[in-house]
Amino acid sequence: MSLLTRLADKAGLIGSVVSAAACVNCFPALASLGAAIGLGVLSPYEGLFIRILLPAFAVIALLANALGWLSHRQWPRAVLGMLGPLLVLLAVWVMRASGHRTGWLLYPGLLLMVAVSVRDLLAPARSASCRTACDAIDAH
Q: What percent of the chain is modeled with pLDDT above 90?
């Protein structure tokens, strides 16, 4: 389950960043990055990326972090892992509801998703059962 949640979290992160970078009109800072790496060819599909793919990948990352919490039971790690996708989903919802640019929500959400993913790669979470067993061994 841990490998599956880690892979789903990374897929959600990559999908969210690529989806946001493909939207030239919505998020100009990411669009310039997307154009630099060749995502400009995806601009005809902006609606698909913003209305469907960005929220779908954010939901995948959110669910992966929620399922990850079930195995490692570390609240700070889970809250940080779920806050990024929630900000991305909120940005999409506000943009749909009001039609305004929501980079002030999207960029921190994506940055948090990237930071949490890098942290998980460098220091993976241990399961709750492993932590109690390791703590018991360390106590002796």
A: 7
Cα torsion 27, 33, 38, 39 to 10°: value is -20
| DSSP characters over 21-34 | HT-TTT-HHHHHHH
Amino acid occupying residue 59 = V
Q: Which two tokens stand for residue 37?
A: 């790496």
Q: pLDDT category, 36, cuts 50, 70, 90?
A: confident
Average pLDDT of the residues in 97-124: 83
Packing angle between helix 75-98 and helix 54-72, nearest 10 degrees? 160
Tokens of 93: 């919802």
Q: In this structure, are residues 86 and 62 in contact, taking their beta carbons and an 8 Å threshold?
A: yes
